[in-house]
Design a protein that fits this description.
The complex is a heterodimer of chains A (320) and B (260). Chain A is α/β, with parallel strands linked by helices. Helix content of chain A is 28%, strand content 30%. Chain A contains 8 helices and 18 strands. Chain B is built from 6 helices and 15 strands. Chain B is of the alpha/beta class and 260 residues long. In chain B, helix 2 crosses helix 5 and helix 3 crosses helix 4. Chain B has a 9-stranded mixed β-sheet with strand order 11-10-9-12-8-1-6-7-13, with helices on both faces. A two-stranded antiparallel ribbon of chain B has the order 2-5. The chains are: A alpha/beta (320), B alpha/beta (260). Chains A and B meet through helix 4, strand 7, strand 9, strand 10 and strand 13 of A and helix 3, helix 4, strand 9, strand 10 and strand 11 of B.
């Protein structure tokens, strides 16, 4: 009987949507699920995990776990796997998941399948579909040996159902020392109430066509008005016009919102690979030859500086 | 500082990739160094330019991989190791095991490589290697500072900000392409690359038997490749923004059900 251990992720003490997607997926597949919850002041989230069907919740709540730490997290997940007797570990394909997935797998002496967008499970036989070659292809993969299955699943690949908290059956994990060779000193955060890129149903992104920080700031209010997350191309982030956390693409955040608005983005291959899963793409660009138009459902050939105020007027009209 | 940079030769994904009967068609494909690995080579060169020492490239794969290694040598790497490997399909776990064997008995301070390879886009091998070698890992770095032979400060792009991490060497570090802009090989570099040492090893030179290679040495396999249905260009709006934008938005609301 397969049993899934979901590695839960939080932000500011609250569960992130991709974690809820994993638990919802386990439930829809009628799989027995437990979860491991790691962080600082996160214990309160155990009940919501239980509400999402997590039988047991293994909790590591410690001030020293506030910032992600490969060594500590790997030890904790391995500990939870041992205690739960899980046959599968599911992680999200966040930066935490990307770092942790292979390390946990190797610690357990097994392989992993990462960034999966489609999962079929028959007992512990798993067929996973995942994009590759900058999303030019998809590959269908499977595990070939017996043992634990370690899988990371792309945010947004599955829907999160609604659920209410229930009283959780929690198990406290002992807090590991961590690797003395690594000192996680600090995290540089830009304080904001902005919507997370990989959780938004609308993303408004800016590219080189904005011409600089001022141009980016010119577009940004529109994102707020639309209830959208604000994204940027690699060129914009590398030039320092916007912080790297806004970067959309294979190197930044891979997004698949319902609507993706690209203002002044030409459409470099790694950018396209990071957003072509969007349901509807809208491109605004002066250059009629820009590659972004090849993937856009609605392409507006025009000047973004003229287009943005009209967008703002129209959005205001819809809201009223 | 001695740095080993594992690189992967991949099909140029900027070009058309074809699939036939579930397999990637290699005929007519142009092979390049995976872009994140080029960033790692550049990073390693900058570190050795500051501190001295050598950059050693490591490539695993058939004869054609030597071309990718020569290209890295032309960028300025000092020497290369080519594991001539023709066992076909091998997963990240299998490659990490081979790399771990290559590292045995070698002197290095840092293993620096791309955060993922542009063909598999899996991003698993480096961290698995770190675990097999019992080394610390920091992935997805966008900057480094306080460079010294025994450690440095790394800036990792994490989920909630830039994580600032002090690390003691040796370690395994993977790079995000925001770290730098890789240099192009100069004509002189290309000439010099021809004379730089390239060590060619076979799996048996590494003491590895058939059970550790190819699918036997892997934990996962690819059943087939498919071309996803590609997006088609939709409708274009050209003209004055005061007309095109309202028209497009009207369609977004009526056809695509945009709600704000």
């Amino acid at each position: 009987m397969p049993k899934v251990l979901v590695v839960a992720e939080t932000k500011n003490g609250e569960l992130k949507k991709p974690t809820l997607e994993l638990l919802s997926l386990a439930k829809s597949m009628n799989l027995q699920a437990e979860s491991v919850l790691i962080g600082k002041e996160v214990s309160s989230q155990a009940d919501l995990l239980a509400g999402y069907g997590s039988g047991k919740v293994y909790v590591a709540d410690d001030a020293g776990l506030e910032i992600y730490n490969t060594s500590k997290y790997t030890t904790l997940v391995a500990d939870a796997v041992g205690q739960s007797g899980a046959t599968q570990v599911w992680l999200t394909s966040s930066e935490t998941g990307r770092d942790l997935t292979p390390r946990v797998a190797a610690r357990m002496g097994v392989g992993a399948l990462s960034d999966v967008t489609e999962l079929e499970i028959d007992g512990d036989n798993i067929t996973a579909t995942r994009p590759c070659m900058a999303t030019k292809l998809v590959q269908q993969c499977r595990f070939t040996k017996d043992g634990l299955r370690v899988i990371s699943i792309r945010a947004g690949a599955y829907e999160a159902e609604e659920a209410s908290p229930e009283t959780a059956d929690t198990v406290s994990l002992s807090i590991p020392e961590g690797d003395a060779r690594v000192e996680v000193r600090d995290i540089q955060v830009e304080e904001s109430n902005e919507i997370e890129l990989n959780e938004a149903s609308i993303v408004v992104s800016v590219g080189r066509g904005t011409g600089g920080t001022e141009g980016c700031d010119f577009v940004k209010p529109l994102a707020g008005e639309m209830g959208a997350a604000f994204g940027a191309s690699r060129a914009v982030c590398d030039a320092g016009w916007m912080p790297h956390k806004h970067q959309v693409g294979q190197t930044g955040t891979v997004v698949s919102p319902d609507f993706y608005f690209a203002f002044g983005i030409s459409g470099a291959i790694q950018h396209l690979a990071g957003m072509s899963g969007s349901k509807v793409i809208v491109a605004i660009n002066k250059d009629a030859e820009a590659p972004i138009f090849k993937v856009a459902d609605y392409g507006i050939v025009g000047d973004l500086f003229k287009a943005v105020p009209v967008f703002q007027e129209e959005v205001a009209k819809i809201k009223n | 500082m001695e740095i080993i940079v594992p690189i992967r030769q991949v099909p140029d994904v900027a070009l058309n990739i074809r699939v036939n009967e579930g397999k990637v068609v290699e005929d007519g494909v142009s092979f390049v160094i995976s872009s994140w690995d080029e960033t790692a080579i550049e990073g390693a060169l900058q570190m050795t330019e500051e501190l001295g020492g050598e950059v050693t490239l490591l490539g695993i794969g058939p004869e054609r991989v030597s071309e990718a290694l020569r290209k890295g040598l032309a960028m300025g790497a000092h020497k290369a190791i080519h594991v001539l490997y023709e066992e076909g399909q091998t997963d990240s776990f299998g490659y990490a095991k081979i790399m771990a064997k290559v590292m045995e008995g070698r002197n290095y301070d840092l293993i620096l490589t791309g955060k993922q390879a542009q063909d598999t886009d899996a991003g698993l091998t480096a961290s698995m290697l770190a675990e097999f070698l019992d080394l610390p890992q920091v992935t997805n770095i966008i900057r480094f500072s306080d460079l010294a032979v025994d450690g440095m400060t790394l800036y990792r792009k994490g989920d909630h900000g830039t994580e600032v991490i002090g690390i003691k060497l040796p370690a395994v570090v993977t790079v995000n392409d925001s770290l730098n802009e890789p240099r192009l090989a100069s004509m002189r570099g290309i000439m010099m690359a021809k004379k730089k040492p390239m060590e060619t090893l076979s799996p048996s030179d590494l003491g590895m038997g058939a059970e550790e290679l190819g699918l036997q040495g892997s934990m996962t396999e690819v059943l087939k490749f498919e071309k996803p249905e590609s997006r088609k260009e939709g409708e274009r709006f050209e003209g004055e923004e005061t007309e095109t934008v309202p028209m497009a938005i009207q369609k977004l609301v009526s056809e695509a059900k945009l709600a704000v």
